[in-house]
Amino acid sequence: MQEWGIVAAAAGIWIIAAAAITIGFLIRNMLLRAEAVLRTMEEQYAALSEQTSQVMEQASRSLGHVERQLAAAESMVVQVKGAVHSASEAVIGVSRVSQKAAQSAAQHLEQARLDNEKQLGELFRWLDIGVSFWHAWHRRSPRTGGGQAE
Is 145 helix (H, G, I), strand (E, B) or coil? Predict the structure, then answer.
């Protein structure tokens, strides 16, 4: 029986060895798959890192461009504000000048009207004197009978 015990022990060792070898192969295959997955993840991580770097670089360039545009727009707004202020002052100045010109023109027109009234008054006075003199002369002059008015 000892021989059967040795054969059983040897068979048990063979079974344990076969199970250990099978488990070793399964573990090795699982480790190889895990290594392949880790390599794939590493490659994807590297690609993602590169893409992220490119996106960050583009975003940085875009922000720089936006900052330059804002600076340009700010200076343009300051210039427009200055131009509007200058235009406003010019409009106020033109308004004052036109108001003074209108007042001056009104004064000159009033003075011209007064001068014209005075001159027309004198003209009508002289005309009245001339017509009165003509009537008076015409009444006192002898009538010659031709086409003289009465």
Answer: coil
